[in-house]
Write a structure and sequence with these properties.
two-stranded antiparallel ribbon, eight-stranded parallel β-barrel, 283 residues, alpha/beta, 16% strand
Length: 283
């Protein structure tokens, strides 16, 4: 049976089991999500992540969905209609900016689609909408798009990994993203590559993975006024004891106001890390 978890970990993960590299079959992912409700760590997971075209295959009102809108701003209304027909509760919407030559204009189109959906009653005012900005250096266009997201009081989504080496951003890039988000008082989530708490090199792929505890600690430091260079150093920490010592000095619960969570294709891997590091205790 699920138990109350510490606030800094409650709802921290969205279950993205059907996405690479997990690639779980959707029926299996839904069954695992439902079965997890009876586990002591059930509150660790907020929602199941699916693309909009796969929403009808879930059709389970007891499975809250974070819906990845694949067709751009124009497909947002259709994604919500699919969820309404299937009877699923929409826990969040995620949409990537696709027009790399006009990120700000693309962001405005997303904002307009969100506003229209809320006016029509298809999207609850409290449902978070995450706008994914390119996993690249912070440029004028990138910042202009973030400004549009902030003006509309939406949220940001950062991609922190993938199945190829070039999809993993540097610590400096992630630090700049965090700085830009907090400068605009924007909450954000991360997705891809954050299965482990501590930064590490995957022995099979050789990819350098960011750690979700690194990102949470870095966010807490940025919130306290630390500069991007120092925040990047925290993102680069690979020593468990050093990172744990730092994390215990920081207000990680407060940092969750900004860093709301992680989309992960594995739930058991980060759970094992949290328990092994003493950050969660099994009752």
């Amino acid at each position: 049976m699920s138990t109350h978890l510490p606030a800094m970990w409650t709802g921290f993960f969205d279950d993205a089991a059907v996405f690479p590299p997990g690639n779980a079959d959707l029926p299996d992912a839904v069954a695992a999500f439902r079965a997890r409700r009876d586990e002591w760590y059930a509150d660790l997971v907020a929602s199941l992540v699916v693309t909009d075209e796969r929403v009808p295959a879930v059709a389970d009102a007891e499975v809250p969905l974070s819906i990845v809108v694949t067709g751009g701003a124009g497909a947002l209304a259709g994604a919500l209609r699919l969820a309404a027909r299937a009877g699923n509760r929409v826990a969040g919407l995620e949409i990537a900016l696709r027009d790399l030559d006009d990120l700000a204009g693309n962001a405005r189109r997303v904002v307009a689609a969100v506003d229209a959906a809320r006016i029509e009653g298809a999207l609850d005012d409290e449902t978070p909408v995450f706008v994914e900005l390119p996993a690249a250096d912070v440029t004028y266009g990138w910042e202009a798009a973030a400004d549009e997201v902030a003006a509309a009081e939406l949220r940001l989504k950062f991609r922190t990994g993938g199945t190829e080496a070039h999809q993993f951003p540097s610590a400096g890039q992630v630090a700049a993203w965090i700085d830009a988000a907090l400068d605009r008082e924007l909450a954000f989530k991360c997705t891809a590559g954050l299965h482990d708490a501590v930064r590490h090199r995957d022995p099979e792929t050789g990819f350098e993975h960011h750690g979700f505890l690194n990102v949470l600690a870095a966010t807490a430091e940025a919130d306290s006024g630390l500069g991007a260079a120092d925040v990047a150093e925290t993102l680069e920490l690979t020593d468990e004891a050093e990172l744990l010592g730092l994390a215990r000095e920081l207000d990680l619960t407060k940092a969750r106001r900004w860093f709301t969570g992680v989309g992960s294709c594995s739930i058991l891997e980060p759970l094992a890390d949290l328990t092994d590091l003493g950050l969660l205790e099994k009752p």
